Amino acid sequence: WTKIKFVKEYFGLTPDFKAKAPKEQYSFLCPDGKTVPLTETPCTWAARPWPGFVANNRIETNTQELTQLRNYISQLNKLGESSEADWLTHVLDIDGNTTAVFWYSNTHHSFV
Questions:
Q1: Which uninterrupted H or E stretch holds 23?
Q2: CB within 8 A of 78, min separation 6: which ones?
Q3: Which residues on neighbouring strands pair with residue 28, listed in sequence order?
Q4: How far apart are CA 112 and CA 48, in angstroms?
Q5: What was the pLDDT predicted at 75?
Q6: Are 4 and 36 in contact (CB under 8 A)?
Q7: Nearest-CA neighbor of 11 among 2, 20, 25, 3?
Q8: How far is Cα 82 from Cα 64, in angstroms, rounded to an integer?
Q9: Are 31 and 4 in contact (CB under 8 A)?
């Protein structure tokens, strides 16, 4: 489990970095078991959301709505940490020092 940036640096796929191992002998592993060469776009296992939320200016004047939104986001975060804890630990090797963030839409669950 690592960031793509570090993979590219390690295998010399980024200017100014010398390869520490031959890229042809390694691949990205996808959730479905397929592999993708390191020179191509990797499959996504999980992604970190941007550190912010966007709202229109209407929310500035509606403090009750803003409070409800903050509570909803907090509840979703707790739900993700509790309901996906085994998956996070065993598949992604994320421990108690990491905060898990998930997006639960009205129609389906998907990792963000």
A1: none
A2: none
A3: 36
A4: 6
A5: 80
A6: no
A7: 20
A8: 27
A9: no
DSSP class of residue 61 equals G
CB atoms under 10 Å from CB of 85, counted, come to 13
Query: Residues 46-88: pLDDT tens digits?
Result: 766 655 555 666 666 677 877 787 787 778 777 777 776 666 5
Nearest partner of 81 among 66, 102, 65, 63, judged by Cα = 102
- Please provide the size of the chain in residues: 112
CA distance 99 to 112: 13
Question: Token digits for 5?
Answer: 């940036």
CB 31 within 8 A of CB 16: no
